[in-house]
Design a protein that fits this description.
It contains 17 helices and twelve strands. The protein has about 400 residues and is α/β, with parallel strands linked by helices.
Length: about 400
């Protein structure tokens, strides 16, 4: 099993030769440095949330309301952070969440490929967004032995949806993640301030522009008339799915089907009754709806409702400590978003690898010090409510 905590030893030993870390070790420093390296319009898209961003901030603050109870005489010399998810053995419970502008975050404009390469190097799966600079086939080719998941923004045209899913299957993706809360964009003042909607400028639409069904809808190759291609995309992007659509979604693929955006236990139960294989508890990091409940606060009820069905989680993850707390609350796997995007902005694949290794090292060392040698030891009773 990997010794994730050894990453700190690498850093200390390098320091003996005068070599300091290339990238920041704290999230706040990482964020500030990445913002200075990105254009304002991209910063607004990656860092911004919905409304006054209260929900986005509450997602992060929710973790501070819980403390991990230390246990001694455990002898947690070796920790096992590996999981089995949908029949796949993974070295850790960490994954990279879908990000519709991750391609633009890289200095060379190919961040989707850089992220996939980081997945290959670390064993941390990437959930590749429908919105990407490079087509899904090129992204999947970089995964090597690490499984990748494909995230679908379901278009209104069912044939196009089927074509995208079919391509993902053929490219070797191992699961399908359907996002439910983004058929229309929420009110995002930061993006509105810069009048920036990257896709309307033709960015991150490679999966559509390389799709035969999209070309059929457009009446020709997208490169012939970019403005018409973007306009066509805009008319078919958002599909306000209902429960009546779930059987159709299930019929699209034999891959594990995960539905993203489930935060109510009743929705979790109904989705499972409809044949989904995984529940993804998330409020989109606070980017889609403001005035809501922190995702972490909704996680326990969703986990209870899901029963034996795995629950993936994201929203507000900024540290290895956050990962451990989410796992203790019942998450089967935990997704990180903005931190890896910032690592990418600063150092491409190397920057992402640093962020992922740092998160896993912190989580591993926390489990060591507090006496939790395996993920099975992280139960809800390991957490106690704390007053701030």
């Amino acid at each position: 099993m990997p010794d994730f905590g050894a990453y700190q030893n690498e850093i200390y030993l390098a320091g003996l030769s005068g070599r300091l870390p290339r990238f920041p070790m704290r999230f706040d420093e990482l964020e500030a440095k990445a913002h200075s390296a990105m254009p304002e319009s991209l910063v607004s898209y990656v860092a911004g949330g919905c409304g006054d961003e209260h929900t986005q901030e509450a997602n992060v603050a929710a973790f501070d309301k819980w403390g991990l109870m230390p246990r001694m005489f455990v002898g947690a010399k070796r920790r096992d952070l590996s999981i089995e998810l949908f029949g796949m053995k993974l070295p850790s419970p960490l994954f990279m969440t879908p990000n519709g502008v991750i391609g633009l975050c890289a200095q060379d404009g190919h961040g989707d490929l850089a992220t996939a390469r980081a997945a290959a190097l670390t064993g941390v799966p990437m959930v590749a967004s429908t919105l990407s600079v490079d087509p899904l086939e090129a992204v999947a080719a970089e995964f090597k032995a690490t499984p990748g998941f494909f995230q679908l923004y379901t278009p209104t045209d069912r044939e196009l949806a089927a074509s995208l899913v079919r391509r993902a299957e053929q490219a070797g993706f191992k699961a399908l993640v359907v996002t439910l809360d983004t058929w229309v964009t929420g009110w995002r003042p930061r993006d509105l301030k810069t009048a920036n909607f990257p896709q309307l400028r033709g960015h991150c639409l490679a999966n559509y522009f390389t799709d035969p069904r999209f070309a059929q809808l457009l009446g020709g190759p997208p490169e012939r008339d970019l403005r018409a291609a973007v306009a066509t995309w805009a008319t078919i992007f958002g599909n306000p799915l209902t429960w009546d659509d779930l059987p159709w979604l299930r019929s699209l693929t034999s891959l594990p089907l995960i539905v993203k955006g489930i935060c109510h236990p009743d929705d979790a139960r109904r989705a499972i009754d409809g044949g989904v294989d995984g529940i993804y508890c998330s409020n989109h990091g606070g980017r889609q709806a403001n005035g809501g409940i922190p995702a972490l606060d909704m996680l326990p009820a969703v986990v209870k409702a899901a029963g034996t069905i795995p629950v993936l989680f994201d929203s507000g993850i900024r540290s290895g400590t956050h990962i451990v707390k989410a796992l203790a609350m019942g998450a089967a796997a935990v997704g990180v978003g903005r931190p890896y995007a910032y690592g990418l902005a600063l150092g491409g694949t190397d920057g992402i690898v640093h962020v992922l290794c740092s998160l896993l090292a912190e989580a591993d060392l926390l489990m060591a010090v507090d006496g939790y040698p395996t993920l099975a030891d992280l139960k809800p009773e390991a957490l106690q409510r704390v007053e701030r």
